[in-house]
Design goal:
The complex is a heterodimer of chains A (about 240) and B (about 220). Chain A has about 240 residues and is α+β, with helices and mostly antiparallel strands. Chain A is about 35% helix and about 15% strand. Chain B is an all-alpha fold and about 220 residues long. The C terminus of chain B is likely disordered. Classes of the chains: A alpha+beta (about 240), B mainly alpha (about 220).
């Protein structure tokens, strides 16, 4: 086998690949994101029991909220109001530049980091009843599609990070009388995140947006998760915002 | 990993299925750097890899009870991660007509290279080689890329890679061979240099060293 032979070249490529391989430390921001995801999974499972099918979680009542959780949720609301506005550039993820309907979107963001306590609570969570009502980004239903989710989210956020929510999708809202704003809301949200009702491939869903600071690279990154109304993760992407 | 308390991967997974709230976190933490490396190199993009790894985490957590012990837990976890990457790349093909997101940037070279290179100049050269290799790797079809990442970069045996990718071993060999052949002209002078200087280079540590039993 000479170094010019196909075998020699293939072996050289193999060695170059081996040199470039091996372990790769998990970046802290990714580790934090995975830890938060795992914590949510564990919490969900704790609520419905280890043997339960997580896909059926909407059929199960939420566990009674405890005061520490309430305090954390309240703190998250306050932090989210600051965090979202600062992490995403230039006060981004704020108002709807297209509709001109203005300021309410900003308050929607700030107030959104609270768990859903609606139909699933079944009235048993008296402590949680005093928590701030969950407020979506806006009342509209954002149409999302698995084939171009990144583009959908980018369109929503705009190049500058300004939210550009489309006008209400009458087609989506007309699906069998479905009104996502009435029925679909996240059961829990990570800190600094916000959400809006959506359709995902024409099915009711929730879009959760969470900014991730990437100061070293001079821009921000928004993690977008699409969840079913039962909280199941359907899809996720990350989108950069300059 | 703690030698003082060597809990097997399979035992941790079983504990998770039985309701232990900590077990899955311990299991995932044990492997997450290697899972990240596989996701990063298979996806070829840092944000995409993070999304894929999160998908895989959720999937593995929820589907733990489907683990039958027919392969090692490591193999099972890698399979889920690779599938998450493949799913994402296939979906990306659908939306290829749309503008690429800004985040689709090259993966930087492995930081692992710096550990054993005391000479800064040599370190820079290695980093440049790694950058070129990873750039070229991104041009391959994702199936070939996944095979090369597992076998040549992560040190899995062909049989283990076949188990992860759920294809015959011959398919893995074929994908690796075709992938290397496609990479050779892309890497040009690097290949010529490497072919002229066949020094003994350490192989990538095998994943078989994992606790949790021998892979199938």
């Amino acid at each position: 086998m000479t170094h010019g032979s196909p075998e020699g070249q293939e072996e050289a490529v193999r060695r170059l690949l081996a040199e470039s391989g091996g372990a790769e430390p998990l970046p802290p921001e990714v580790a934090a994101r995975l830890d938060a995801t795992l914590a949510r999974l564990v919490e969900q499972r704790d609520e419905i029991g280890p043997d339960a099918d997580l896909e059926t979680e909407t059929l199960m009542p939420l566990r009674r909220q405890r005061w520490p959780k309430l305090l954390l949720a309240a703190a998250a609301v306050m932090v989210a109001g600051y965090g979202v506005a600062t992490v995403v550039q230039n006060g981004s993820l704020t108002g709807d530049s297209d509709s001109g309907a203005s300021g309410s979107a900003t308050s929607g963001l700030a107030a959104s980091a609270t768990p859903q306590q609606e139909s699933n609570s079944g009235g048993q969570g008296s402590a949680s009843d005093s928590a701030p009502a969950p407020t979506p980004l806006r009342a509209g239903v954002v149409p999302l599609h698995s084939g171009h989710l990144t583009a959908d989210v980018r369109r929503l956020l705009g190049r500058s990070g300004t939210v550009r929510l489309p006008k209400e999708d009458t087609r989506a809202q007309g699906l069998g009388g479905f009104r996502a704003a009435d029925r679909c809301a996240p059961r829990s949200l990570p800190a600094h995140s916000t959400w809006t009702t959506a359709t995902y491939d024409d099915r009711p869903a929730v879009l959760v947006l969470r900014p991730i600071r990437r100061a070293a690279e001079g821009h921000s990154v928004v993690a977008a998760e699409v969840r079913s109304c039962s909280g199941t993760l359907l899809d996720s992407v990350t989108v950069r915002v300059r | 990993m703690s030698d003082a308390a060597p809990v097997a991967d399979a035992d941790l997974l079983a504990a998770h299925v039985a309701g232990d709230a900590e077990a899955f976190g311990l299991l995932f933490a044990r492997h997450r750097d290697r899972l990240w490396a596989v996701a990063l190199r298979t996806c070829g993009d840092r944000e995409e890899a993070a999304d894929a790894l999160q998908d895989a985490l959720v999937s593995a957590f929820r589907r733990a009870s489907s683990y039958r012990g027919e392969s090692s837990v490591t193999t099972w976890l890698h399979r889920i991660v690779v599938n998450a990457c493949l799913d994402r790349r296939r979906r990306a093909v659908v939306r290829r007509a749309l503008p690429l997101p800004d985040g689709d940037e090259p993966v930087p070279p492995s930081r692992a290279l710096s550990a054993a290179a005391p000479d800064p100049a040599e370190e820079v050269e290695r980093a440049e080689r790694a950058r070129a290799v990873l750039e070229a790797l991104r041009t391959l079809p994702v199936e070939q890329r996944a095979a090369l990442v597992l076998v040549d970069m992560q040190g899995f045996s062909v049989d283990d890679a076949a188990a992860i990718l759920e294809v015959p071993a011959g398919t893995v060999k074929s994908r690796c061979s075709r992938g290397r052949t496609r990479l050779a002209p892309l890497l040009g002078s690097l290949v010529e240099t490497a072919a002229r200087n066949p020094v003994d280079q350490p192989r990538v540590p095998s994943e078989e060293a994992d606790r949790g039993g021998a892979p199938q």
